[in-house]
Write a structure and sequence with these properties.
Helix 1 links the parallel strand 1 (6-10) and strand 2 (30-34). Strands 2-1-3-4-5 form a five-stranded parallel β-sheet, with helices on both faces. It is 40% helix and 20% strand. The chain is an alpha/beta fold and 122 residues long. The relative contact order is 0.16.
Length: 122
């Protein structure tokens, strides 16, 4: 039996994070939520996930900072970034950091599934 795909969701908005974790569960993925990038990094099992979905704008470490840290540590975990803000150059910064997708809140579940399918090859 194959193991369930595990996705880590990092967002300081508790309601959004909870809804996204539940939505991923309803789509057949395993999901774990974190209130911050620091909380995710502090979890001893953080490198066992198959994908990270992180908000860009959070207190402390941003989603882009997190992706850069994971890359510097040699991690190949794909990172999808999400944001509710429109900022010039944001797509370019996300791409330069190595994010595989940038989704703008609110986004359709089909957009999320397309990004996940691309990175997880499912």
């Amino acid at each position: 039996m194959s193991r369930q795909v595990l996705i880590s969701v990092i967002d300081d908005d508790e309601l959004f994070r909870t809804v996204l974790v539940e939505s991923l569960g309803s789509l057949g993925y395993g999901a774990q939520g974190y209130a911050s990038a620091e909380q995710f990094i502090a979890d001893d099992n953080h490198l066992s996930c198959d994908c990270v979905i992180s908000d860009i704008h959070m207190p402390g470490m941003s989603g882009i900072d997190l992706k850069e840290l994971l890359t510097a540590r040699g991690s190949k975990i794909p990172v999808l970034l999400i944001t509710a803000r429109e900022e010039p150059g944001q797509e370019a910064r996300a791409a330069a950091a190595g994010a595989v997708c940038l989704l703008r809140k609110p986004f359709e579940s089909t957009s999320l599934v397309q990004c996940l399918s691309k990175v997880l090859k499912v």
